[in-house]
Design a protein that fits this description.
Family: Belongs to the CobD/CbiB family.
Largest sheet: 2 strands, antiparallel
Strand order of the largest sheet: 1-4
Number of strands: 4
Pathway: Cofactor biosynthesis; adenosylcobalamin biosynthesis
Keywords: Cell membrane, Cobalamin biosynthesis, Membrane, Transmembrane, Transmembrane helix
Number of helices: 11
InterPro entries: Cobalamin_biosynth_CobD/CbiB
GO cellular component, one term: plasma membrane
Radius of gyration: 20 Å
Amino acid sequence: METFLVAVLVCVVAVALDWLVGEPRRWHPLAGFGRWASVAEAGLNGQPQAAARSLCLGALATAIVVTPVLALAVALQFWLGGWLWLVAQVAGVWLAMSLRGLAEHGRAVSSALNTGDGDQARKAVGWIVSRDAAALSDEGVAAAASESMLENGADAVFSSLFWYLLAGLPGVVLHRLINTLDAMWGYRNSRFLYFGRFAARLDDLMNWLPARLTALTYALLGSTRVALRCWRTQARTWDSPNAGPVMSAGAGALGVTLGGPAPYANGIKERPVLGRGPGASAATIEGAIALVQRGVMLWLSVLLVLALACSWVVPGGAG
């Protein structure tokens, strides 16, 4: 029980650290991992391959780039002790999530929309979404940013907390590495359709439960009845098994309409409509950011109460 309380306190300190200083602007470990992954991908995915071979090479590349980092995270448990091990855990959770960074990216878009600077808003949203930002209307910009806040809140914040609490530092490290590979290789184009499939499916698997806990969190903190109805009726129409619940519940909680057709470099992608209500605006982006932030506070509060209650009920429990 004491171990659970320590883990929750690690999360609290990591969230506070993220809130105070944000993520590192330079020398972020994930940037180095991304370069290492790019080298491995270039070496194994340089020539057109048959589907089965490409899939196997993608699985091999995933193992090659992830195993050394994961092994280091596991080894730290034996190399470090006491305060050093606690510091390593706080640092791992802090580096794995991006609560403040997510809000900063979203507010760069909402601030530009509020001042009527549509060009700057499209430039800012282009940093966080893959669609053709230049072809977006102001409402489309707001919708894209809102969707990004809701989805990345699940991927980059709630899932990190979940995997740390479930499997410690190795768990949160593994999740962040696989999620990064999915972002790099999870494209449905000729280069990555099969090569990136192993990482993409593993990311889907690791995010399945955290995504649904996130969707429930959004629903509880917004228009609950509408959010649950949207989740139940709309989530399965989305092409991502985890983004569907998160974004439909989030849109319903905010009382807005998201989804729908979106422009990409290769043309318009017809997407289902999510949520219910008016179209997105700058206020929707702010609402999505607040939903993520309030959700984190809810998780930490509930976990802290549970951990304290367990430590009182089972004094001196196994740790």
